[in-house]
Amino acid sequence: MTKDTNWTHGLKPRVFSSIGAIHAGLRDYLEKDLEKDFEKGLEQGVVFRLAIEPIKESGFMSPKIGELVFLQQLAGRFNIPVPEFVVEPVNQSDVKKKLLAWGCGIIKPDVLAGKRGKAGTVHKVSDYREAMRLLKKVAATEVGDQQPRTSYMVQSVPADMELFTAITYNSKFLSPSFTVSLKGGADIESVAEADKVTIPVDVFRGLNAYQASETLSKLGLQGKLNSSLAVCFVNQWDMFVSTGMQSCEINPWRITKAGQIFACDFKATFDENNFKFRDMGFKLPEYPTKEEAFDEEMRAWSASSHQGQAHVSSLGGKKILPILFGGGASTIIIETLSQLGGDPMFLSDFGGNPPYERMKKTAEICFRHKLADASLLLILGGKANNTQIDVTFAAMADALEEWVAQNGRINIPVVIGRGGPGLVQGFAVMKKTLENLNMPYVFFGPDTPITLVAAYAAKLAGHSDKKV
Questions:
Q1: How many helices (H) and strands (E) does the chain have?
Q2: Cα separation, 273 vs 271, whole angstroms
Q3: R_g over Cα of the chain
Q4: Of 35, 140, 312, 402, which has the fewest beta carbons less than 10 angstroms from its beta carbon?
Q5: Which residues have CB under 8 Å from 430's CB, separation 6+?
Q6: Residue 48: which H helix or E strand, with range?
């Protein structure tokens, strides 16, 4: 990382006395210590790692499915071998018949949350009476503060080997990638790099059986099983690319002593803007949620128009109210804030060149639900290509003025970082509004990395006074 001591990049910050005492210290931090913190974070895979937790679990923007929908809707269509299953509600006679045939079954909740086993909701059963009791109990048990849609029982598959596979879009390759490990059944993050192979996949040519076989050969797996698995992996790719998935993971594939292959757990996320997702041929089920009124209102507002995005996902933070632009940038910003103590209230993406009225209403919803409890207001995004900065800033400024008129003065700092068409005019509008409201502010131009602006905001939120 190259250090740039011109930390305001020509934009003179205005900081009132309420935070002026700490401002010099923050500047010194930016100039001297921030680079060390980020380099340390890079070494530990912390600050710039792919945001897996808690962002992935929040389900922000991307529709998700779990194992049950995969079993019901996708496995058969794409010739992916899976164990037999039954879904609650189910007749006792059917459960008894299945257990007699299987020997044992595994009861699981249909819930879009991880760590189901650690939550005590995955049970191995052989008695049909116990199975009926557990199916009802598991269906009513929350996992990670989420209520299951139902419960189901799958055939227990004894295995000599377990594998992991995942397909996702990979920023390193600028294309999809395929990952395989012979050490399935565990979190892939805990598997050593030497025990997994990741290859790029040409999105137009796709994954072929030769490539899939080669990845297994690199891990030392040869023979007939190699060939059989390669066919399964190609089918997984066909499912991924045919349904508009962003990522999909099968963990584990279980291999029996007889060489039978079964995909025994699954999760996937979809790109809701991909026409293949919209044309899958079935509707994703609705899951019970405990979403906040803020998330619910914003989701309805986002769905009301195609003009601009209005995506949020509450994170439970208490400090920073983040109005962010750009889905990828938003994820990086939130991860940086979280790692440096910024405690963001929610994850957001408000890009897509929203017109004035839409951006104003979006900001009004954010301010009405969150501003009174915030320690800092952060408006941040990369350099826009088509979003008119002056329009979006004017809309947010007017929404902020109206909130103050209705609720009274709020004494929290405002940190803004943005670039794009109409930036100077937008900064001028925001400057006038913030000075009229007597709110301290700092502006950053597009040549300041968003991670540095986020780091600054996190440190400032940790020191600034609450509203008076």
A1: 15, 17
A2: 5
A3: 25
A4: 140
A5: 393, 396, 397, 416, 441, 443
A6: none
pLDDT tens across 150-175, in order? 999 999 999 889 999 999 988 787 88
Q: What pLDDT does 393 receive?
A: 95
Between 3.40.47.10, 3.30.470.20, 3.30.450.40, 3.30.420.40, what CATH number should domain 162-278 receive?
3.30.470.20
400-346-115 Cα angle (round to 5): 170
Q: Which residue has 């991860």 as its token pair? A: 335
So where are the chain's domains?
Answer: 17-59+289-463, 84-155, 162-278
HSE of 130 in the Cβ direction (CA atoms, 13 Å)?
10
**What CATH number has the domain spanning 84-155?**
3.30.1490.20
CA angle 329, 333, 336 (to 5 degrees): 140
| Each residue's pLDDT tens digit, 227-271 | 999 999 999 999 999 999 999 999 999 999 989 999 999 999 998
Which amino acid, one-letter code, is at 437?
A: L
**Beta carbons of 135 and 106 less than 8 angstroms apart:** no
Rounded Cα–Cα distance for residues 449 and 443 (Å): 13
And the tokens for 56? 């992935």
Residue 96: partners with Cβ closer than 8 Å, 6 or more residues away: 128
Q: How far apart are the first and last CA of the chain?
A: 39
Asked whether this chain's domains 17-59+289-463 and 84-155 adopt the same fold, the reply is: no
Q: Please provide the CATH number assigned to the domain covering 17-59+289-463.
A: 3.40.50.261
The answer to whether residues 453 and 444 touch, using CB atoms and an 8 Å cutoff, is yes
Residue 378 and residue 366 in contact, taking contact as beta carbons nearer than 8 Å: no
Tokens read off for 347: 């994850």
- One DSSP character per residue, 12-52 reads --B--HHHHHHHHHHHHIIIIIHHHHHHHHHHHT-TTS---
Q: Tell me what pLDDT residue 302 has.
A: 79
The DSSP bridge pattern shows strands 175-181 and 196-200 to be antiparallel
DSSP 407-464: H------EEEEEESTTHHHHHHHHHHHHHHTT--EEEE-TTS-HHHHHHHHHHHHHHS
Give the bridge partners for 166, in sequence order.
179, 249
pLDDT tens-digit series, residues 395-407: 999 999 999 999 9
Query: Tokens at residue 359, please?
Result: 């951006």
Residue given tokens 């600028």 in the structure block: 174
Look at residue 20 and give its three-state secondary structure: helix
| CA dihedral for 443, 444, 445, 450, sign (positive or negative) | negative
Position 59: which residue type? G
Cβ(154)–Cβ(68) below 8 Å: no
Cα-Cα-Cα-Cα dihedral of 295, 301, 306, 308, to 10°?
-70
